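I hope you will forgive my troubling you with a question about protein structure. I am sending you one protein, given as its amino acid sequence and as whole-number tokens for its backbone shapes. Thank you for your consideration; the sequence and its tokens are set out here:
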Amino acid sequence: MKLLVAAHASELVAFEDHLPGFERLLTGVGKIPAAYALTRALSTGEYEEIVVVGTAGAIDDAVEGGIYDLAGAIQHDVKGLDGTFGEHVSLPTRVETGHDGLVIATGDHFVDDADTVRRIRELGASLVDMESYALIWVAQQFDVPIRILRAVSDRAQDGATELWDDVVERCSHELRAEIRTRYGV
């Protein structure tokens, strides 16, 4: 059995309630709700793979719309003891999925301004979201493979918050088609 994970119900609007071979988990938005929900699920069930679907903002001009696999994640809303942006006091700077793909910067606020995008881009990320780092870290603690598929919903610039509300359904349909192609369901 695989675990299909999304943060927000609107990211799953195109998915049937019951997908053969998958159980569904809705985590809630942000790193703490994501970590909590996935930890509970992995503590009570056994899964061969975690498959995360959802949206992300693009911060790299070379990244167009579409679906992207993630190779790893960093955190854009932390600082190390020495004040280094993007480093956590005790967690790894970057966590890996084991797949080829893009690097995403995770943080607990919706990125929607050019100044923040420039600062995050310097960390080496191409996308931004609010859960991926936490989900990868928890999956590693339980030694369960994880794949994260992100649909680009916006350019993470001024006005992105309003844009997300308009495009999340389209992104959900793109993600559903990708799951059908990759997993045959």
